[in-house]
Automatic annotation (TrEMBL):
TM stretches of this protein: 12-29, 180-202
Low complexity bias spans: 226-252
Name of the protein in question: Capsular polysaccharide biosynthesis protein
UniProt keyword Transmembrane helix, yes or no: yes
Region annotation (Disordered) ranges: 209-299
UniProt KW keywords: Membrane, Transmembrane, Transmembrane helix
Keyword Membrane among record annotations: yes
Biased composition (Basic and acidic residues): 263-286
Source organism of this protein record: Georgenia alba
Length: 299
């Protein structure tokens, strides 16, 4: 069965195809709305070494006095790794107030350079940019605090500076479209299969009916007469008239206007009725007329 056959079956049995496609479209739309959109963007910052203060000269000896500065975090890369751990912690999420929301934050460092990439996600593009701005500002405070707690002097503390500005906000919810598309494709496949199945079943049924009608012989005259006698087909052939049941009426049957022998007669009405003048010839005149006709007329 090729694609055109399936398409033809789906079009012929549209009363099967359309409801299934409509249901699939509704489910796909609901699944699309059920998944909240997620947007993402990132920003990069770098950890810089402390600013070297200007040298201090001893006025008595004229020698340069080296200030005493110490920092337990040896190098900016180590300070960047510690900062990333702090930003990824749940305590920082509680501190920023997005621990119970759909917003997420991920900080990743480069193994060779003290560069920190901060990736944020939120429900809207504006919320993503706002989150990146707040996290970058708060990260500088976190870097200063954990150095102070470790005993680093003021002049030896590392500082944070922006490296790459925020990138374009992107929609990172492809599963939202994949789920809706998958439901739509499955719905169309089910509709095509159902329409094809119904079409094949109806075609086979019609073929069996045609074959049975072709194999059945036409009814004979005896079967037709038997069916008629048994109360079957009593349809009259055009042009024939069915004889009425019961005895035929006699020609001299009395009509409604003519009185019967048993009906009473009104003699008085008959005597009073006017009579036409009828001239009856005499008997001798009739005999003379019969004599004049001769033998031919006598026959």
């Amino acid at each position: 069965m090729d694609l055109f056959t399936i398409l033809g079956s789906a079009l012929r049995r549209f009363y099967v195809t359309l409801p299934i496609v409509a249901l699939a479209a509704y489910l796909a739309w609901q699944s699309y709305l059920a998944v909240e959109p997620v947007y993402s963007s990132s920003v990069s910052v770098t950890v810089l070494p402390p600013v070297t203060p200007p040298p201090v000269i001893d006025p008595e000896t004229g020698e340069e006095i080296e200030p005493y500065e110490s920092n337990p975090y040896d190098g900016p890369s180590l300070a960047a790794a510690v900062l990333a751990r702090n930003l990824n912690s749940s305590s920082f999420a509680e501190r920023m107030g997005f621990d119970d929301t759909e917003r997420t934050l991920e900080a990743d460092t480069d193994s060779d350079d003290p560069i920190l990439e901060i990736i944020a996600t939120a429900e809207t593009p504006r919320a993503v940019l706002t989150l990146l701005r707040d996290v970058t500002a708060e990260a500088n405070v976190v870097l200063r605090d954990f150095q102070a707690e470790a005993g680093a002097t003021e002049g030896s503390r590392y500082r944070l500076a922006p490296a790459v500005p925020a990138e374009t906000v992107e929609d990172v919810t492809p599963s939202r479209f994949r789920t809706a598309g998958a439901i739509g494709v499955i719905g169309m496949a089910v509709a095509a299969a159902a329409a094809t199945g119904v079409d094949v079943a109806l075609e086979r049924r019609a073929a069996r009916v045609r074959a049975r009608r072709a194999n059945d012989p036409p009814p004979t005259d005896e079967e037709t007469a038997s069916d008629t006698a048994d109360g079957g087909d009593t349809t009259q052939t055009p042009g024939t008239v069915e004889a009425p049941a019961g005895p035929a009426p006699a020609d001299d049957a009395p009509t409604d206007d003519a009185p019967t022998d048993n009906a009473p007669r009104d003699d008085a009405a008959r005597d009073d009725a006017p009579k036409d003048d009828v001239t009856v010839p005499d008997r001798p005149a009739l005999d003379d007329a019969a004599t004049n006709r001769g033998p031919a007329h006598a026959r």
